Amino acid sequence: MKLPILSIDDVSSSQLCTGCGVCAAVEPGRFRMADAEGIGRRPFLVDDPARETDDALKICPGASLQHTFDETDPGFDRSLRASWGPVYEVWEGHATDPGIRHAGSSGGASTALALWALERGHMHGVLHTTADPETPYLNTTVMSRSRDDLLTTSGSRYAPASPAEGLPIVLDAPAPCVFIGKPCDVAAVQQARRQNAALHEKLGLVIAFFCAGTPSTQATLDLMKQEGVADPATVTSLRYRGNGWPGEWVVQWNDNGTPREARLSYADSWDFLQRSRQWRCYICPDHSGEFADIAVGDPWYRPTAEVQPGSSLLIARTRRGVEILHKARDEGYLTLTTRDHSMLPRSQPNLLKTRGRLWGQLLALRFAGKPTPLYTGFPTFHRFIRLAPRAQAQSLLGTLGRYRRHLDKALALQTPDKQKETP
Ligand SMILES: Cc1cc2nc3c(=O)[nH]c(=O)nc-3n(C[C@H](O)[C@H](O)[C@H](O)COP(=O)(O)OP(=O)(O)OC[C@H]3O[C@@H](n4cnc5c(N)ncnc54)[C@H](O)[C@@H]3O)c2cc1C
Ligand code: SF4
Ligand code: SF4
Prior knowledge:
Blueprint: H1 8-13, H2 22-26, E1 31-36, E2 40-45, H3 55-59, E3 64-66, H4 78-84, E4 89-95, H5 98-103, H6 109-119, E5 126-131, E6 139-144, H7 147-153, H8 167-172, E7 177-181, H9 183-195, H10 197-202, E8 203-209, H11 217-226, E9 235-239, E10 245-246, E11 248-255, E12 258-265, H12 266-273, H13 279-282, E13 294-297, E14 307-308, E15 312-316, H14 319-330, E16 334-339, H15 343-347, H16 349-367, E17 374-376, H17 381-384, H18 389-397, H19 399-409
The structure holds flavin-adenine dinucleotide and iron/sulfur cluster (SF4) (2 copies).
The site of one iron/sulfur cluster (SF4) has 11 residues, from helix 9 and helix 13.
């Protein structure tokens, strides 16, 4: 019998939290987001917290995810539905603006779409993530209003971020806004707008990027140390990639008055960081932004050089997404080069295996009585049976050991108010 999840505390203490931040947006009288040492962004109790309602729990992606799109819509590609969610169009492309294309993580497509929304789509701002100006190895949530803002905030940050905590800013905005986040952030936002008509009206465009998982802040600190940063307080800038595709991990710091810099390839830095992904990422059903209007990823189907002009894979997942993609292209913000639905599975074959393993992982956890999120509308068995027998066995037998290791690591953090914040 699996344990029930009855509160946000249950989500957090059982390591099902994605760190999205929507609970702090919906119940600010009880929760605030902060970086829990070694784990990720987590909800902490505010001083003198209000009683918990179930408003946050109902939309928390750590507790449940539910697809509600119209399965009878003839517009989406039925051959991709089971493994990739709703897919209307798949394109390769990039930002037409060379500065945005260069700065962006893949081809700057997310930033180009956001700029279209600000300059042509009559939207007010873009709620998303950037480096904390005071502590560049941490992330913060911001509302960008201009091309300059968007250039500063472009680029993936392979560290915890909670953009959904900023939803009250969207709610207060004078016009609809763009939201950009990981698939779990986007799922949280879409679940929140179903409960709140005013918020629904204020979300003009929702963009997700593909996501294999969020590494902990500790992983970034360890990598900086390995590359020569003796004191994280001396860091002046940290980029994980971008400035060419796939770009490099670059840290800059002040060494007793001397500016210093260290660089690593995208592959080497990701290989280091990904070992510390939070537990929820191992049992995530949505790595490709199934709840977004438009999802953006890397077109990994093509061989990459160390640094080359950027390119993005774009998936229109709603009719609104299709419309905006076409407008952004026609109005000169986005260059779309190739339309080919097979680019999606060819670019991300690892995500198909991940989906297959999920069936075995959830079965093992439920069988052992461990808490699991409730996922509705995410078929997985069809991918499980295509896995090699060894991978099937691993997903069934290796899961509990991995869960135990994650729980042990977080043992001191059993309830949100007892978690230690990163100083
Ligand atoms: C943790 C993580 C894992 C990823 N895993 C994969 C993967 O497995 N496969 C794949 O194809 N792509 C993955 N990506 C996405 C990829 O790195 C690019 O972000 C994506 O291709 C979009 O590129 P772009 O040039 O359009 O983005 P840009 O135009 O550079 O814009 C990036 C946007 O992402 C936002 N952002 C950056 N970091 C975060 C964060 N941590 N949380 C929330 N928002 C953030 C920024 O605010 C910005 O708006 C991952 C990204 C992250 C952050
Ligand atoms: S997944 Fe999001 S809503 Fe749920 S507990 Fe974590 S931060 Fe809060
Ligand atoms: S893998 Fe899933 S749960 Fe983890 S950060 Fe990415 S979208 Fe969120």
